[in-house]
Each structure stands twice: as structure tokens, then as C-alpha cells.
């Protein structure tokens, strides 16, 4: 029992050192996405685009446009998703519509953005495959 306690004390006292080493070994990775969202013929104002692995989030402007860029340190290659939360063509239903699109790895960067993944103009009235509802984003 004493041996286990000693090992535990040694391990926990070295935890900050181990975390620091892991951060140094992890590589900086990120991506950027931009586009314009409309609801029918009008800009979709206040929709929330979000690059998952918690890289960046924002809201669409008065023209329905957004531009996101973010980075994180990870040991493995990041898997990036563009999530969009919105209420286009939704009536009074609770929560928001949520769509997710994979961001190609060719748009990943190592801390300095080279090129945005441009989704162009998307009409969010469309029902997308795999669309969900989300109340807690």
C-alpha cells in the first residue's frame, strides 16, 4: 500500500512537467472557413457557424456572411467540422436546426492561414441529410 502511495505522489508531482512536454510535442493545427448564408432570398443574420474541435465560432453579419479561423495544439491530426446552428424556415419550433459539414484536410494549416475553405452562398431553407436539432450549443 505504501509503495502505491509513493508512486501516486511521484506521478502527481510530475504531472505539470508531463503536461508541458505533451504540449510541446503537440503540433499547432487549424483551419479557416468562410461563406454566406441566406434564408430564401434574404441574408441569414445571427446564425452561428462553429469550427469543431472548438477552433472558432462567431455569428453571421447583416449580409449573412461569416469568416472563421482558429487553431489548437493536438498530438493527432485534427478532424474539423463546420457546424451551423440556425432558425431558417423553422417556424416556432424549439431549439435550432444544426447541420454539420466535414472540412477537407487540404484546408488545414499549421498556425498560419493559407487559404479559407469557401462554402460560397448556401440557402439554409434546404433540409440537409443528417440535420439535427440542438438546444445546448
Automatic annotation (TrEMBL):
A Pfam family it matches: TTR-52
Compartments it resides in: Secreted
Signal peptide: 1-20
Gene3D superfamilies tied to this protein: 2.60.40.3330
InterPro entries, sorted: Transthyretin-like (IPR001534), Transthyretin-like_sf (IPR038479)
Gene Ontology CC terms, in alphabetical order: cell surface; extracellular region
Keywords associated with the record: Secreted, Signal
Superkingdom classification of source: Eukaryota
Family in the record: Belongs to the nematode transthyretin-like family.
Name the UniProt record assigns to this protein: Transthyretin-like protein 46
Amino acid at each position: 500500500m505504501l509503495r502505491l502511495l509513493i508512486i501516486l505522489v511521484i506521478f502527481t508531482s510530475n504531472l505539470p512537467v508531463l503536461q508541458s512536454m505533451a504540449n510541446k510535442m503537440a503540433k499547432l493545427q487549424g483551419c479557416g472557413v468562410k461563406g454566406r448564408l441566406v434564408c430564401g432570398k434574404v441574408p441569414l443574420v445571427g446564425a452561428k457557424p462553429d469550427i469543431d474541435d472548438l477552433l472558432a465560432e462567431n455569428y453571421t453579419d447583416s449580409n449573412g456572411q461569416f469568416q472563421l479561423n482558429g487553431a489548437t495544439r493536438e498530438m493527432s491530426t485534427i478532424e474539423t467540422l463546420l457546424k451551423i446552428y440556425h432558425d431558417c424556415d423553422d417556424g416556432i419550433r424549439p431549439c435550432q436546426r444544426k447541420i454539420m459539414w466535414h472540412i477537407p484536410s487540404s484546408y488545414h494549416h499549421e498556425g498560419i492561414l493559407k487559404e479559407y475553405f469557401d462554402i460560397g452562398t448556401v440557402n439554409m431553407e434546404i433540409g440537409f441529410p443528417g440535420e439535427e436539432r440542438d438546444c445546448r450549443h
